[in-house]
Amino acid sequence: MNRRLALVVAVLVALPAAGRADDPAPAPAPSSAPTKTVDAMVGEVITLPYNRTAAYSPGWVRGPTVNLTDSGNGQWKGNIKDLAGVFTVTEKRISGANFNIVMDRDGEEWTAQGTVDGKRVRIVLGPDALVARYDNRFYELKRVSEDLWVTVPTGPGIRVKGDAAGKSPYYPQFIFALLAVL
Question: How wide is the angle at C-alpha 144 spanned by C-alphas 58 and 169, nearest 5°?
Fold first, then answer.
C-alpha cells in the first residue's frame, strides 16, 4: 500500500464516531440562560466642527468623555468629564461630587444651570434657540433645521439625532450628553 492511501485510512479510523455519516448526530447542548439585551441608542449629540459626540439610550450615556449607566432609583453611575461616581437625579436636580445642576422647565423652554467640577454651567433650550455656557465657552445657537443648531452666519454647531432632536428629549440623558460634548 502506498503512503498516501495508508494516511487516508489512518485518518478515517481516527475520526470520532460523531463525524461519521452513518451515526446519529449528538443531542444539542442545553441552551444557556438568555442574556440581558443592551438598550438601543435613542439619541445622539455631536458638536461641529469638532465632532465630539455622546449617544444615549434609556439606560446609558456613552461617548469619549462620558460613560454613565442608570442603576435605578434615580442613581446614575460612571463618569463624565473626569468626574467619577454616583449622580443622583430628581425631577429638578442632578447632583454628585463636584456636580450640581438644577433644572427648571417652563412650557417648551427649559434651563439647566449649576456647576460641574467648579465650572459654571448654564444651558437654555427653547423651540428656536440653544444658549449654552460651560466655563469660559459660550454658544448662542439658532435652530436651522430639526436636527441642527448653529451659530449664524458661521461658527460652531450642534447636530442632534433621534430623541435629542425632539421637543422633550430624555432627561437626564440629554443633559449628560450635552455636557459631555460642550
Answer: 15
